[in-house]
Amino acid sequence: FAEEAAFLWHRRIRAVTAPHFSFEDLVKLDERLEAHIDGLRVAGEAGWAACDKNLGSELPEEYFAPSVLAFESGKADRIQAILDAIGEDPAKARALISALGWIPYEQAEPRIRNLLTSESSFHRYIGIAASAIHRQDPDRHLDQALENNDLLLIARALLAYGELGGEIRLNNFSLRNNLSDDDDGIRFSTAWSAALTGNSNAIEVLKNFVVMKSAYGEKALNMALRRMEQAATLSWQKHLANVAETIRLAVIGAGIIGDPHLVPWLIEQMKTPALARVAGEAFTMITGVDIDQEELRGTWPEGFNAGPSDDPDDDNVAMDADLDLPWPNIESIRRWWDRNKGNFPDGTRYLLGKPVSVEHLQHVLTTGLQRQRAAAALELAIKQPGQPLFNVRAPGSRQREMLKQKEA
Fold first, then answer.
1. What are phi and psi of 260, to 5 degrees?
2. Considering 168, 197, 225, which residue would you say is the last residue of a domain?
């Protein structure tokens, strides 16, 4: 049970952001993961022993199941064993945070409270992250985190302001300081949360993360384009498209902007193998057309390579970023667009074939693929100020209940 739970959690980490993974796929994966954790619960002491022996592992996934068992039990010795084992390793802490997010908040709250009041800034970081996953405001602990000198803690607290949906509780002086901080994590988290809550000063900071090809670039792009005026988004997207280093982000950006004006340009990008699949995804984001349909799906271009090769001398070890996306059949897609473009007037923002509206966004949260659902959640948070950002990475059963409440 322990090994399978570790494998499934590791798989889940990728699945929650995968372009081909649906909400129902996530629910089924979570049911499998929960079944293995339940097997460890039923096994009692033997189940804990099976987890405990893995606490020296360097693999973060080995810490998820034991963290769930430890926090559910409330036993101080087990919780301490977990905390000692992860030390201050952010990758291992991710499994612990995920475990606190996995169990119901009523059960997690006392454990989170202990972390929030810990003398360790790393433990307080875990507490704030776990609170944010549950979309529960840690109140004064969030504000106090900004008075710390731990960069990881400060950045996570700043990100939580946006996720929780409240007006950012920072005075203008602090906001200006954090938007110009030397630390990328602090600067990005401030800009992302500030932009989500409507602060236009944050947009230029986010745009800088995009053009400098930062690790935060795609997240910054997703927020900045949704917070800019339509004319400004088209102008900036064109600028990104004219620079080789950012043309991929320009393709992704076209799907974010959602203006049918960009569809012919996207179809042209499908001629470039390195951009073809992500251009197809952007086309779907606007039109709602499933390229995986047989008549719209193409084949792998002859001679094109992506991802690691079998050559031991090849230094390229990066995974194929578009591995899970279908290859578009350019001519079939062009014919489809010629037949249907009259249904998509320029100047209107579309997501999956329909104008962006609260009702449609709610529908996408229920029926969309994970990347599409993440886009819908962000759009909803912008349209509904004060509401928490819907967590499309939460346990599937919990999301289902939340979606039912939204429909009621």
1. -55, -20
2. 225
Which tokens in the block code for residue 343?
């249904």
Where are the alpha helices (H) located in 148-272, listed in sequence order? 151-164, 172-179, 184-196, 202-211, 217-227, 230-241, 247-257, 263-269
10 & 117 share domain: yes
29 and 122 belong to one structural domain: yes
Instruction: Please tell me the total count of domains within the chain.
Output: 3
How far is the CA of 358 from the CAs of 195, 354, 355, 383, 408, in angstroms?
A: 19, 11, 10, 7, 15
Q: Could you give the CA distance from residue 202 to residue 334 in angstroms, rounded to a whole number?
A: 38
Of the three residues 225, 241, 270, the one that is the final residue of a domain is 225
Predicted local confidence at residue 407, as pLDDT: 76
Beta-carbon contacts of 132 under 8 Å, excluding residues fewer than 6 positions away, are 156, 159, 160, 163, 164
Q: What is the pLDDT of residues 207-225, one digit of tens each?
A: 999 999 889 999 999 999 9
Question: Rounded to an integer, what distance in angstroms lies between the CA atom of residue 108 and that of residue 72?
Answer: 8
The domain containing residue 20 runs over which residues? 1-135
